[in-house]
Each structure stands twice: as structure tokens, then as C-alpha cells.
Design a protein that fits this description.
Bound molecules: pantoate
CATH topology of the largest domain: Rossmann fold
Structural class: alpha/beta
Oligomer: single chain
Helix content: 25-40%
Number of helices: 10
Strand order of the largest sheet: 1-4-3-2-5-6
Shape: globular
Length: 281
């Protein structure tokens, strides 16, 4: 596995792979890798000739007061894990190379980025879209792989790819969960032991919603209320519960078709997000 820090070097390598007609697959990450990331890497290995994993804790997607400084960083472990998965290139650029002092151009996603996560983190998706487009330009992937855990992020990125005519296929991988159902996330490491136990309420609430829909409930309002009720008293604060069309994340009145049920809440001051995707007749 080659470890590349230089942007120019990455671009030159990508150009060489293109000349050789190799299919490049990119897995963008912020490191602190867990099984969820490795599931993306394994899919990348199946889909491409050259697998590039980027690790870059992107400052522009964190607002002032968020967890940029304390975001977990485990470079040695990450490197070992990626090597074991047969990754070809680990791309780890420096922040001042990605954002030099005179950096002044951002990708600003539209309406989709103002709802759900965007309502609570107004500049988050601007940071995500900007860095992802820069990574696409640097790595020149044919395919890029993202996890459904950050479902709105995948919707924003798909929109950007379509709107800006980027010749890149976006592949989404289902969320990897711990044994008790909690979605794997680098931020789970912030939870106390007690908080980690209370976090089980999140997948449990989503499962309760899924079961209610399976037994015939079609009112989105009732499902949102059910989830909130299940979370109240267990988590400190519920930022939102959404029952929406899966591809646009437009809120539904009646549940049918491809549906995403998403939520964000806080436990121990740690903000966690999760979702499930259902096909409902
Ligand atoms: O999902 C993430 O880890 C990040 O948002 C991403 C896509 C790597 C951009 O920084």
C-alpha cells in the first residue's frame, strides 16, 4: 500500500492509472476506521482495479464549537487495517494543502442541505461537498463509495454529481451495526459506559417503527411520534425524527414506496444520527 500525502503526486498517479485504463474506486473517510468503513473498502476492492482510501479530517465540515479538535485520530491502526484489506493507496493530505491560506471557493449544495442535519449544522454540507469534490478531482475515481449511515450526505453528493456532471458512479453501502444494533460511528467512542447502554434506544426505536409499519401503520406523523416517545427519557435531546422519501428526503404524510426514517439525538452531549431504509407497498 502506497501512502500519498502530496496532492500533485496523487493527481499524477491518478492520471497514470487512467492512461492504463484502470478503474479507480475511492472510499473517502475521516479515519478512526471501524468495521463500517472496512465494509466500504471491501466493496471497493470488489469493484475496482485500484482502491484509494482517503483519510482527511475535514475542517470545513465542522462548525466552530463542534468536535474538530477531539475527533478521534488513529493513524497507525488505520494504516494497518487498510493494508490488511489490500488497499492500493492511502491518501492522507495535510489540511493546509487542501485549504491553503488563500482558499476561497466552496461548493454550496441547495435546499436538500438546509433540512434535517443541515438545519442543525448549517455549514456542514458545504464543507462535505467542497472536500468531496476536491477529492474527486485529486483521485479521479470512476466509483466512489459512501455509507448509508450518513444518508443525507449521500443524497447531497448524488445531487452534486448529477448537477455538476461528474462522471462518477456513487455506490452506497448499508449501515454496519454493533451486536446490540447501534450503528457503528467513530463518535460512539465519546460515549460513557452508561451512555453507550442508553444509545441502544436508538436502533430499538427505529426497529419499533419498522415493526409498526410492517403491521400496517401508514401515518408518518404517528411513526415520528412513536420514535420520539421511545427516545424520550433515554436520550437527552431529540434534534429531529424524519419519515421521508428515500432519495429526496422529502417528508411524507403517508408511508409508501422507498422510505428513509432518520433521526438525530444527543446522549451525554454526544450527537448521534441513525436511519433505516424500507420498501413499503
Ligand atoms: O463521511 C465522512 O467521513 C465525511 O463526511 C467525508 C465524506 C469523508 C467528507 O469529509
Amino acid at each position: 500500500m502506497r501512502v500519498i500525502r502530496s496532492l500533485v503526486r496523487m493527481q499524477k498517479l491518478a492520471a497514470a492509472f487512467k492512461r492504463e485504463k484502470k478503474r479507480i474506486v475511492l472510499v473517502p473517510t475521516m479515519g478512526a476506521l471501524h468495521e463500517g468503513h472496512l465494509a466500504l473498502v471491501r466493496r471497493a476492492r470488489k469493484l475496482g482495479d485500484i482502491v484509494v482510501v482517503s483519510i482527511f479530517v475535514n475542517p470545513s465540515q465542522f462548525a466552530v464549537g463542534e468536535d474538530l479538535e477531539r475527533y478521534p485520530r488513529n493513524p497507525a491502526t488505520d494504516k494497518r487495517l487498510l493494508k490488511r484489506e489490500g488497499v492500493d493507496i492511502l491518501f492522507t493530505p495535510e489540511a493546509d494543502a487542501i485549504y491553503p491560506d488563500d482558499f476561497d471557493t466552496y461548493v454550496v449544495p441547495g435546499e436538500i442541505a438546509t433540512r434535517l442535519e443541515g438545519a442543525f449544522r448549517p455549514t456542514h454540507f458545504r464543507g462535505v461537498a467542497t472536500v468531496v469534490l476536491k477529492l474527486f478531482n485529486l483521485v479521479q475515481p470512476d466509483i466512489a463509495i459512501f455509507g448509508c449511515k450518513d444518508l443525507q450526505q449521500t443524497v447531497v453528493i448524488r445531487r452534486m454529481v448529477a448537477d455538476l456532471n461528474l462522471p462518477i458512479r456513487i455506490v452506497e453501502i448499508p449501515t454496519t451495526r454493533d451486536r446490540d444494533g447501534l450503528a457503528l460511528s467513530s463518535r460512539n467512542s465519546y460515549l460513557s459506559k452508561q451512555g453507550r447502554k442508553r444509545a441502544r434506544a436508538i436502533p430499538a426505536a427505529l426497529l419499533a417503527a419498522q415493526e409498526k409499519i410492517a403491521s400496517g401503520e401508514r401515518s408518518a406523523t404517528k411513526i415520528r411520534s412513536l420514535i420520539k416517545r421511545r427516545l424520550l427519557g433515554v436520550v437527552a435531546e431529540v434534534d429531529y425524527v424524519s419519515v421521508a422519501e428515500r432519495h429526496t428526503l422529502t417528508e411524507l404524510k403517508e408511508i409508501s414506496g422507498e422510505v428513509a426514517i432518520s433521526l438525530a439525538c444527543r446522549i451525554d452531549g454526544v450527537r448521534l444520527i441513525d436511519n433505516i431504509i424500507l420498501k413499503v407497498n
